[in-house]
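Intended use. Records like the one below are meant for learning the mapping from a protein sequence to its folded structure. Do not use them to infer anything beyond what is encoded.
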Amino acid sequence: PIRLDAGLTDGDVVKVVLGDTAPNDDTPATQNQDYIANGSDQDVYTQDNAGTNNGDTAGDPVNGDATNNRKEASATSEATVGVVERDYGDLPAPYSSLEADGGPSHFIRTDAGGANDLFLGAGVDAETDADITNGDATDDAFDDGVTVGSVSLQGLNVIQGQSFDLDVSATGADGKLNIWFDWDGDGTFSAGEQVATDLTPTGGAITVPNVTVPVTATAGNVGVLVRYSSNTGVGPTGLGGYGEVETYVINVVASDPALTLVKRVTSVGGTPVTGFVDDGTPGNEDNDLNWPTGFLEGSIDTSTAAPGEEIEYTVYFLSSGNDAITNLNICDMVPANTTYDAGTNSIELSFNGTATTFTNAADGDAGEYTTGVPTGPGISCPTDNGKGGVLVNVVASPDVVDAATGPGTPGNSFGFIRFKVTVD
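Structure written out for the chain above:
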């Protein structure tokens, strides 16, 4: 190989003269002869290769043979220097992005017409080195090829334990996609943090399914490295052939599922209680903005109920944290001075658009009434008041009550359980 001086610039002409070794008289002793069938001045023999299974012909090199067009020594070649532009990653310290730190980079490839033809998203721009001045990997406007649905990966909030699909737009059908997430936030990309390895596009697109945020992922800003390259097996550092480097910073949010409960009387003596009575405390559970409009109904006062009259209780629930809830059990004790109405299928669950009733017995369905305190794995009910209690298993893993993102959204973020008692 011939190494050119680093001081060369565009337009400089480099001349290479192949060595002139004695005797230079077309005899087998002559060295430095070209070995390309089209007669170009590349790949020069300096000695006879042993054997014939390596592209060599039998015997010593011979100048001027008609088969391989080997030429005499002292052939001369000239080339005009053209600097190939490069693209770098832009993650801030402690990530290695700068050339001096071994940061990832790719040559920018162009087609015969001079147009870029191997990149992600809308394009790729040339850089002399990584630009890390913004401190959040937003220094390159063309780091735009990776989205989650229609939302850019840049600045995305994700929750520990959450899974999502990456949608990648790619130009250049021969490119290979590699992606790393620095889940532990240590400033390096380890082999275990790679979520895509040498994926190729179909119709200009690549989907990376089920990227899961580890429950142990470091909360806060986390770097993401994306490389689209003409080479396979590129790592997270160094020059990786032609292609593009894209970098992103996402925000990992600690998982914090939460449940909001509101209990109301929804029927007295067989007459439904219309409307809703607020408990009067501003910002309390019944004022959560994510309750569906008109969903909460009922009153707090039961003083109008006479002995022998029936009271219907409804316990509303809302997933009010930032992550889904699983293995949700709701327990409510029968109030003092009342007796549970143990009619057939007298426990009701309304969830995800479906109303279901359950028997009172612990018979394998999701609801039960017990004369004591309901028990079970992970279940903690109030103190026994002598009237028993109702227990409903709303969901069990892998089913979940998703976190509410708006009033009534999604449809499995809210619901209620319901039972009836008679005043003693």
